[in-house]
User: Fold this.
Amino acid sequence: NGDGTSSYGGIIGVRSKFAAGLGVLAGAIDAASGHDTFAEYDAADLIKIIGAIPKYAEGNARWYGHRTAWANTFLRLVAAAGGNAIMDIQAGGKPQAGYLGYPFETDQTLPSALTDLSDTAVLLFGDLDAAVTMGERRGITIDVTRDRYWELRQIGIMGWERIDINVHDIGDATNAGPLVALMAE
Assistant:
């Protein structure tokens, strides 16, 4: 979700990159016309984004979405699919089981509103490891003070670490990268 401001430590996140590339990035896949809520996305929308990632990203591909997306899109489609036995329904829909052979990772920072999400990256699909790199700018540092809390017979411990995240490959105008987004239409 990082937008490059100081609130996000200067980090520009995946969703911000897709929003900035709306209409330009090949990996920003529009849902069908009028599909702008989790209750409206259908199997055709989901299959469309599966087909957008390059072959090299398929082996580690997975879905990324809010738990609300899982329940209101994926579980809705599974429950409506023909051929479900009572045992399938009773087993419940765990996100780890995935959809269409790809696991689902819940991410509570992705959109969860059940209302119109037009022009928003609502679901991600692909190989996050191939598209994003997280690096340590400075290792973990721990400081201890025995002076500050002396009167309370306590010590103070402070730890910090500096990291950076680089979204380096979500494709360009012609080719989708290893991570694609379903954009609410």
